[in-house]
User: What shape does this take?
Amino acid sequence: MPFRRRDFIVANAGDGYASAVNPVKPVGRRSLLALLAAAGAGVLAACGIGGSEAGSGSAGSTAPRRYAYGDDPSQFADLYLPAPGHAVRGVVVIVHGGYWRSTYGAELGEPLAQDLTGRGYACWNLEYRRVGNGGGWPATFDDVAAGIDALAGAAAEHGLDLGSTTALGHSAGGHLAVWAAGRVKLPPGAPGAGIPAVPLTAVVSQAGVLDLGEARELDLSDGAVENLLGAPEDAERYRLADPMTAVPLDVPVYAVHGTKDTTVPPSQAENYVAAATAAGAVAELVPVPGDHFAVITPGTEAWERIVGLLGQAADAADPGLPEG
Assistant: This one.
């Protein structure tokens, strides 16, 4: 059955995701984070050297380290490293979602980073300006580009090999992750244009908003796309921001989507993969059990599938990496 306009809406009132299809009582920000943290309980937190302390780690490891890439309070990333003596399997750039709005932040990526460092990955949990705290066009895009590039300095400080660097983005973060992978194709003067300091080698999109044209037509989250980009008459702006217009990318994109997602329609992943593969790119549609949040909840079947894709991406970037 085709999805009608406004079938998938996320309310911006309060801190909760609420669907027009399955209305629910809004979940408070702290409650959501507690659920996510509980799902990842028992996993060792990451550690690092240098930078400034970002928070407390679990027993047996030190805290992640915070690196600012600008003067705004939202221009930072937290670096998580495996415990000393453990080999780094690859680097993962985590880009959180929230329909590009400031209601949610990088704390959504913390349980993912904690889980992945326990599996041998170094994680760069990125924050950026969102709509409501200075973001939108072009600031959000400038921040994501600059924030990923800032990883180069932190990697040099810690001796990290960036030969396998996968972007892992959820919801609006999936959009930004795929957009970032296509920066090299942007025209001069566009936000994020130029040769990236940290080339991405793959993208794993978790319920990503990958077709801005459809998202705008469906009026997802009460006009989130126009809320992000403004200037509805500026077709070029919308084209530059849309992953659909950047295909084919030079790196593989795995579009993971929950079969019970009522926040972002599965057609967002389906449309992107169809367009990318038709253009000759490597892209894969990966349906998984669960809703919009299953893909960012360690311990779920959906999350384990994502971990497997990260391993696949790491092996493809560096065939010499060990299995596991």
